[in-house]
From TrEMBL:
<dbReference type="GO" id="GO:0006508">
    <property type="term" value="P:proteolysis"/>
</dbReference>
<comment type="similarity">
    <text>Belongs to the peptidase S11 family.</text>
</comment>
<feature type="binding site">
    <location>
        <position position="248"/>
    </location>
    <ligand>
        <name>substrate</name>
    </ligand>
</feature>
<feature type="active site" description="Proton acceptor">
    <location>
        <position position="93"/>
    </location>
</feature>
<keyword id="KW-0378">Hydrolase</keyword>
<feature type="active site">
    <location>
        <position position="143"/>
    </location>
</feature>
<keyword id="KW-0573">Peptidoglycan synthesis</keyword>
<keyword id="KW-0732">Signal</keyword>
<feature type="domain" description="Peptidase S11 D-alanyl-D-alanine carboxypeptidase A N-terminal">
    <location>
        <begin position="56"/>
        <end position="276"/>
    </location>
</feature>
<dbReference type="GO" id="GO:0009002">
    <property type="term" value="F:serine-type D-Ala-D-Ala carboxypeptidase activity"/>
</dbReference>
<dbReference type="InterPro" id="IPR001967">
    <property type="entry name" value="Peptidase_S11_N"/>
</dbReference>
<feature type="active site" description="Acyl-ester intermediate">
    <location>
        <position position="90"/>
    </location>
</feature>
<protein>
    <recommendedName>
        <fullName>Peptidase S11 D-alanyl-D-alanine carboxypeptidase A N-terminal domain-containing protein</fullName>
    </recommendedName>
</protein>
<dbReference type="InterPro" id="IPR018044">
    <property type="entry name" value="Peptidase_S11"/>
</dbReference>
<keyword id="KW-0133">Cell shape</keyword>
<dbReference type="GO" id="GO:0009252">
    <property type="term" value="P:peptidoglycan biosynthetic process"/>
</dbReference>
<dbReference type="GO" id="GO:0008360">
    <property type="term" value="P:regulation of cell shape"/>
</dbReference>
Length: 302
């Protein structure tokens, strides 16, 4: 028992030296001090495997900002400009989907009264009656700006935007601000790689939304089967790279190419956030190759 205590003490000491920041282990110690005052609490503590780098080389990427984390522990393994503000483009729709899931029922039927025609669209028709579930597919799979707009407008546009920013605040996305549900607007709208990782983590906690973002292609219809919409995921890596399970693309000319990816390998899970890239898909391929070749895990139980 004493030997185990000394091992854990040494392990966490080294952990703080090499993994500072807002990680799983930091929160255990910072916010659960009473846990360690209880007899036997340390021995019952669940310790997650710790990622480390085998070498000091880094992947070649064009993105101006990158944030890669081990998802279960939220331990960063690669970061550049992680808290610098960037235009989010359609990565905003992660928050749009989270708010829509909160305020609607999936089988709730919405009548399309107004829509928009800018950028990527699922081509909704005025008067079309469609479920919230299918609008979420249009928002997250096809990145339909019209689908995101209809979700916000039907609830009350300004109220919906207010809820988006409240959701961001709840998730501690302190360097993010949103003014439209699609990401088209570029004035007073911003986020960071770190904040997007927080949003992506929250989305993946929801099994239903996690299933949607991993969908490569689907055909959905309105409730009367008059209008059918073929939705193709903008993320080219889905189906190309084993282990990629979504998550959300984004692009405007000013924002550049953005991509938030969920990646699984050998039982480990990663979030990869790239902002203002010149080639988001190639950048992500390079990061995944780097993860496969350079990230190992220390298991404290071994």
């Amino acid at each position: 028992m004493r030997l185990k205590f000394y091992f854990l003490f040494t392990f966490f000491t080294l952990l703080f030296l090499f993994y500072p920041g807002d990680s799983y282990y930091f929160h255990i110690f910072a916010y659960n001090r009473d846990l360690f005052n209880k007899k036997g609490a340390v021995s019952n503590l669940k310790i997650l495997p710790v990622p480390y780098l085998k070498s000091a080389y880094y992947p070649e990427v064009s993105a101006e900002a990158i944030y890669v984390v081990d998802l279960p522990s939220f331990t960063p393994i690669l970061e550049t400009n992680k808290k610098q503000r960037f235009l989010p483009a359609s990565t905003v729709k992660i928050i749009t989907a989270l708010v829509a899931y909160d305020v609607y029922k999936l089988n709730q039927i919405i009548t399309v009264k107004k829509t928009i025609s800018e950028g990527q669209l699922m081509d909704l028709n005025l008067g079309e009656k469609i479920t919230v579930e299918n609008l979420l597919y249009g928002t997250l799979v096809h990145s339909g700006n019209d689908a995101a707009y209809v979700l916000a407008d039907n609830y009350g546009y300004d109220k919906f935007i207010d809820l988006m920013n409240k959701k961001a605040s709840q998730l501690k996305m302190i360097n993010s601000h949103f003014i439209d549900p699609s990401g088209l607007k570029e004035t007073n709208q911003y986020t960071t790689p770190f904040d997007l990782a927080l949003a992506a983590r929250e989305l993946l906690k929801n099994p239903y939304l996690a299933k949607i973002v991993s969908t490569k292609e689907i055909i959905i219809s309105d409730v009367d089967f008059k209008h059918f919409h073929k939705l193709s995921n903008v993320n080219q890596l889905l189906g190309e790279i084993q282990g990629i399970g979504g998550l959300k693309t984004g692009y405007t000319e000013a924002a550049g190419e953005n991509l938030v990816s969920f990646y699984k390998k050998n039982g480990h899970q990663f979030l990869i956030v790239l902002l203002k890239s010149q080639d988001r898909f190639q950048d992500t391929r390079n990061v995944i190759e780097w993860i496969n070749n350079n990230v190992e895990y220390l298991n404290p139980k071994s």
